[in-house]
């Protein structure tokens, strides 16, 4: 089977926050993206805003489309948990350990990283699984605060004390928001003192893409609101400040080549657990069954997915240049990344996720490439 060649020339999403801290004078980070030097930096992450989608719908985002921008590659898997962790730690999934929307934790089972519940049965794991154990690296927000910066995270109030927030966004002051209005007001307030670093998150564009499809009318209407938010933040930038607008992944609309894993017994023979999501699957197998499972998945999925054993996916750099020993077992014994507009759904075990129109996670440019749009006030 052919293996996709990763684009090594395009900077990674994981470079954004280290570059921002470098621009603010924090050692030993390097400003690889050209932020600085700056007295204040804000990073706005718009969940689901792919590079291709922004280009295709530039008329709905006239402000954002006029800001100088370049593409970033988000890394694998192209999903929110991994993307937020890349922002929060400055490293790829092989080091921070959030290798999927769901993934197997040895001794625990499959963890849903967003809900912090066992997947797919929903058992609450808050008391059993510590965020500090899942993600052990210091966050960039903690390092910013230690360096004397005013470090702030602006995001939905409902995420203020979730395990995912504690794992990858802790270390700074958390400002919970309820709507676009208080998000638009909170970022300038966080940047008011010199020496400020602010990260803000907006998630509704991703929601519209999942429910109605990327590029749909509801998605485009939401993009217009995002553009107004960006305009407001640019207008409020103090002198010496920079605003970077990025995303955690793009999105595609699935077609009729989708495979229902729950309806294909041959795809679950020898499999002890399935994780990931529709476009990026981790397959954990019974002892001695790797070769048989790999062969079955390759035969049945055919050209609809790249299917690799764990070692080959790691060697190919899917999970970044480094995969930590503690992270390696979280990666499936077999890894499947969807091609084209196909997907690997589970309509019985994952009915809510399987019903979504828009999906992401894999290695296509539509999912991997996101904008790095940089506005400055000199």
UniProtKB/TrEMBL annotation:
InterPro entries: Alkaline_phosphatase_core_sf, Phosphodiest/P_Trfase. It comes from the Bacteria. Pfam families: Phosphodiest (PF01663). This is AP superfamily protein. It comes from Saccharomonospora azurea NA-128.
């Amino acid at each position: 089977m052919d293996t996709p060649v990763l684009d090594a020339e395009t900077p990674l999403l994981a470079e954004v926050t280290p570059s921002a801290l470098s621009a603010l004078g924090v050692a030993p980070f390097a400003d690889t993206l050209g932020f600085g030097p700056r007295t204040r930096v804000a990073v706005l992450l718009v969940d689901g805003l792919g590079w291709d989608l922004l280009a295709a719908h530039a008329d709905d985002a006239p402000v954002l489309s006029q800001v100088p921008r370049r593409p970033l590659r988000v890394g694998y898997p192209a999903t929110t948990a991994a993307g937020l962790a890349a922002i929060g730690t400055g490293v790829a999934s092989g080091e921070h350990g959030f290798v999927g929307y769901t993934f197997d934790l040895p001794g625990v089972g499959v963890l849903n990283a967003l809900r912090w519940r066992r997947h797919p049965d929903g058992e609450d794991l808050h008391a059993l699984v510590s965020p500090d154990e899942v993600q052990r690296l210091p966050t960039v927000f903690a390092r910013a605060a230690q360096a004397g910066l005013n470090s702030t995270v602006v995001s939905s109030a409902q995420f203020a004390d979730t395990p995912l927030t504690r794992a990858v966004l802790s270390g700074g002051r958390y400002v919970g928001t309820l709507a676009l209005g208080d998000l638009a007001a909170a970022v300038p307030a966080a940047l008011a003192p010199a020496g400020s670093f602010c990260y803000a998150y907006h998630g509704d564009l991703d929601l519209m893409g999942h429910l109605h499809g990327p590029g749909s009318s509801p998605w485009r209407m939401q993009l217009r609101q995002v553009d107004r938010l960006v305009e407001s933040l640019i207008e409020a930038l103090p002198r010496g400040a920079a605003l970077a607008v990025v995303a955690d992944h793009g999105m595609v609309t699935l077609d009729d080549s989708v495979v229902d894993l729950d309806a294909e017994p041959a795809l679950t023979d020898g499999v002890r657990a399935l994780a990931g999501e529709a476009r990026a699957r981790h397959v954990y197998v019974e002892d001695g069954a790797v070769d048989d499972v790999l062969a079955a998945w390759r035969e049945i999925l055919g050209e609809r997915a790249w299917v690799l054993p764990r070692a080959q996916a790691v060697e190919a750099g899917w999970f970044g240049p480094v995969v930590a020993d503690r992270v390696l077992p979280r990666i499936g014994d077999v890894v499947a990344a969807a091609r084209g507009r196909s997907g690997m759904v589970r309509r019985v075990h994952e009915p809510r996720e399987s019903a979504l129109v828009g999906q992401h996670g894999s290695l296509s440019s539509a999912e991997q490439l996101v904008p790095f749009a940089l506005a400055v006030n000199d």
